Amino acid sequence: MAGGGWYKINSALHSVLYAVLNSALRALFGHLPSTRPSLVLLLSPKPAFLSSVKALLLTEYKKMSYVDVADPVCGPDDVLIQVRACGICGSDIHGYDGSTGRRIPPLVMGHEAAGVITGVGAKVKGFAPGDRVTFDSTVFCGDCVHCQRGDVNLCDNRQVLGVSCGDYRRHGAFAEFVTVPARILHKLPAELGFAEAAMIEAVSVGVHAVRLTPVAPGDTAIVVGTGMIGLLTLQAAKIAGFAQVIAVDTEDSRLAVAKELGATHSFNPKTGGDLTEFVKSLTKGQGADAAFECVGLNATVLSAIHAVRKGGTVTLVGNLTPKTELPLQVVVTRQLRLQGSCASAGEIPRCIELLATKQIKVDKIISAVAPLAQGADWFAKLYAGAPGVMKVILAPQV
Ligand SMILES: NC(=O)c1ccc[n+]([C@@H]2O[C@H](COP(=O)([O-])OP(=O)(O)OC[C@H]3O[C@@H](n4cnc5c(N)ncnc54)[C@H](O)[C@@H]3O)[C@@H](O)[C@H]2O)c1
Ligand SMILES: [Zn+2]
Ligand SMILES: [Zn+2]
């Protein structure tokens, strides 16, 4: 699937172009690389090249349509996946109006998904049709210096599924089927449902942030911002051994969920007074050993920096605003460590285990599981700022 005009093609033109593409693929591979269209269409009166799938397409900024698109082409290193659940990410909502420049239409978004393999490319080993899987949102190359070091999130050739940003367009999983390279796949245990599995990518953000942050027995962490990412980070922080975890949010409802999910204390800066003093009162006057900043605004970054003890770590996860103030002397003279954290690098198997064993809980974070066909309405609602709604998961089969 190349870019733009593909999707606007009506059925007649579509079939002609797709026939040309199929001939090219036959010439290159000697067979149709994707097993699903050929298998399905052997049983159907239509020839394989007329195959199409349903997808939720961003046709122009703030406009989504549930339409037929060309069947995704499965290359030799790819697998074809029948999508069973795909989460709407905050970055999808921010990209929906064009403000981030990373969702240039036409685009099928969606990078937080799980499903069942229905076809494998000729070179794929270790996966077979019928396997239940999830995948990384990052398509890493595996070859660059960062990939070789295991920092696949920092890959020089990184692409993100469901993103188009000028440099590339990579259609995502708000569709009945998606193809992804086998190297980003992970098998799911039978006990993990598809909607929960679609949360793995978000869980991995929290688990990665915690892995980058030093912790010793008895330590105290604060989590600034207990939205979806903060709630997952705080659960990961407790598992990693932080004895006290202080949740900070301006919404009491979010703080209530944080307490249910294991926060030992909660603090609302709108009504609670001074956060630094509150944290000191719980840490023998020292401050927290670590702060996880999960909002990304000037005020919240500053409050995280001021709440940690001398020698503490501020792990920066939120990035709503591109720039914030740096209180240089506080950071230098208190010898703080400011640690950025981006996506995840190798934590997905651990996240699958944490979810399957319910050590990390996502039921209170999933607000709705809705049919993919209703995706446009959900995008509009979330863009308008639906109060109290956290993660919405779209499912083609619902
Ligand atoms: N680094 C990464 O890999 C990564 C991955 C995903 C998301 N993010 C970022 O993490 C951040 C959080 O994402 P999310 O999906 O949890 O968003 P969210 O909207 O669900 O949560 C944000 C929370 O911050 C709270 N908040 C807002 N202003 C506040 C303030 N002044 N003080 C305290 N709390 C405040 C909100 O009430 C809300 O609960 C975003 O900036 C997002 O871009 C980073
Ligand atoms: Zn995401
Ligand atoms: Zn790489």
Explain what you see:
The protein is an alpha/beta fold and 398 residues long. The two termini are 26 Å apart. Strands 3, 4, 5, 10, 11, 18 and 19 form a 7-stranded mixed β-sheet that branches. The protein has a 6-stranded parallel β-sheet with strand order 14-13-12-15-16-17, sandwiched between helices. It is built from 13 helices and 19 strands. Strand 16, helix 11 (328-333) and strand 17 form a beta-alpha-beta unit. The protein has 2 domains: 4-199 and 362-395, Quinone Oxidoreductase, Chain A, domain 1; 206-340, 3-Layer(aba) Sandwich (Rossmann fold). The model is unreliable at 1-50 (pLDDT under 50). The chain is globular and about 65 Å long. Nicotinamide-adenine-dinucleotide binds next to helix 7 and helix 10. Residues 90, 205, 224-230, 248-251, 254, 269, 294-297, 299-300, 317-320, 341-343, 390 line the site of nicotinamide-adenine-dinucleotide.
What are the main properties of this structure?
seven-stranded mixed β-sheet; 2 domains; binds nicotinamide-adenine-dinucleotide; binds zinc ion; 13 helices; 398 residues; Rossmann fold; six-stranded parallel β-sheet; alpha/beta; Quinone Oxidoreductase, Chain A, domain 1; 25% strand; 29% helix
* Helix content bin: 25-40%
- Report the span from N to C terminus: 26 Å
Shape estimate: globular
The CATH topology of the largest domain:
Quinone Oxidoreductase, Chain A, domain 1
Q: Can you count the helices?
A: 13
When the domains are counted, the total is 2
